[in-house]
Design a protein that fits this description.
Number of helices: 15
CATH class of the largest domain: Alpha Beta
CATH architecture of the largest domain: 3-Layer(aba) Sandwich
Strand order of the largest sheet: 2-8-7-6-5-3-4
Oligomer: single chain
């Protein structure tokens, strides 16, 4: 049967390909006495959400309204809690009625936004590397990506001067994300100010994907809401998945210019309904009763970062220590380069030999080739045991 050209362009996605390899390995491991799967490929944490959030969800689950479809008007208590959070967190007054939108995960928002603001053939600027949903959203909208390579030697800073004024005029959308996934770079607010100024000057939308805003290990994370131009051109995406460990509950929100929130809301009205009122109650409790939850996560992730980096360096794998939590962004080890392995070939071989799953950097764009992402989503002892498996295997190459 035929499928659309846009679906063909979308491809299978790195997480889907990785999932197939992990599933195949796990099925063999049990019967062949292989080491158990140690999954370090997804930013799905083992750390727990605040009890207040879980208790609020449980208390609301028995209410009949929690089992009903939830339309936009019913999300006002959630949107009001978000507006209060934005005032406390960033010192910005936000209109809960017109500038806040509930999302089913920030990935959903970033993937759907191009459908709301772009026409087929429109050009949009993406960082390279970038999170897969940024590129996937453009493919769904039949838009054309323009990649802005990030240089590790420049601290992964975007070089906006790499595009000519004519190229800027040709753009309709720019998608950024700092703290940055996958390079694990906190970034600087001045980068967003520069991006917002260019967006206003050249008449394009600036989307900032910010699910890691509370997980900067060094310094304060950038936020588009602190830019004076956000109401002119911008929309920013936030998530409960990382800072409050609620990834499986698929809770997120966007804050942005009224016209952008309205456009995305109109699209969502066709695509889906909102999350259950019970889940929204948990999100409200997280914002209001556990605002400092991410702080304790940062302490844990800092320890995991340092211990895992030490363990990998001890087996001969150099590590650049990141400035944000949850991941390590690793260059291919010397043994892989000597064999001319790409990132996906290396990850497949590593999984087969050791049972340790990482994410190949090529899944984040051409600029990710030669790199690997390791998620710090297990206790230190498990991470160090994984490093030992990796070291023993590298020694045989």
């Amino acid at each position: 049967m035929p499928i659309s050209e846009r679906l063909s362009r979308l491809g299978s996605g790195i997480f889907a390909r990785n999932d197939q390899r992990k599933s195949a390995y796990a099925s063999r491991a049990a019967s062949r006495g292989l080491p158990p799967l140690l999954d370090l490929s997804l930013g799905s944490t083992d750390l727990q959400p605040p009890e207040a959030a879980i208790e609020a969800i449980a208390a609301q689950l028995g209410q009949p309204a929690s089992a009903s479809y939830c339309l936009h008007a019913a999300t006002l208590p959630f949107r009001s809690a978000v507006a209060d959070w934005a005032q406390r967190r960033f010192g910005v007054k936000v209109d809960a009625e017109t500038e806040v939108l509930l999302l089913v995960g920030s990935q959903e928002g970033t993937a759907h936004l191009p459908l709301a603001v772009l026409n087929p053939g429109d050009r949009a600027l993406l960082l390279d590397p970038c999170y897969p949903s940024h590129l996937g959203g453009l493919h769904l909208a039949s838009a054309e990506p323009v990649l802005l390579p990030l240089d590790p030697e420049a601290g992964w800073r975007p070089d906006f001067d790499a595009l000519s004024p004519e190229q800027w005029d040709d753009l309709k959308l720019m998608v950024l994300g700092y703290p940055h996934n996958p390079t694990v770079t906190t970034g600087q607010h001045s980068w967003l100010d520069e991006a917002a100024a260019r967006a206003v000057r050249h008449g394009l939308v600036l989307a900032h994907d910010n699910p890691y805003v509370d997980l900067a290990l060094d310094g304060e994370a950038p936020a588009l809401l602190r830019s004076p131009h956000w109401r002119d051109c911008g929309i920013e995406f936030f998530s409960f998945s990382k800072g409050w460990c609620l990834g499986g509950y698929r809770l997120a929100f966007a804050i942005g210019a009224e016209w952008l929130i309205s456009a995305l809301r109109q699209l969502k009205g066709v695509v889906d309904f909102n999350q259950s009122l019970a889940l929204q109650a948990g999100a409200i409790a997280a914002l209001e009763q556990a605002p400092h939850w991410p702080e304790q996560l940062r302490q844990e992730y800092r320890q995991r970062r340092d211990r895992m980096a030490d363990a990998l360096e001890a087996v001969g794998w150099p590590v650049r220590r990141p400035s944000m939590a949850l991941y390590l962004w690793l260059e291919l080890p010397p043994q892989a380069r000597e064999r001319s392995w790409g990132s996906e070939a290396f990850c497949a071989a590593l999984l087969e030999a050791t049972g340790v799953a990482l994410t190949p950097g090529n899944g984040f764009g051409p600029g990710g080739e030669g790199w690997l992402r390791l998620a710090l989503v297990h206790p230190v002892a498990d991470l160090e045991a994984g490093a030992a498996r990796i070291g023993s295997w590298l020694a045989t190459l």
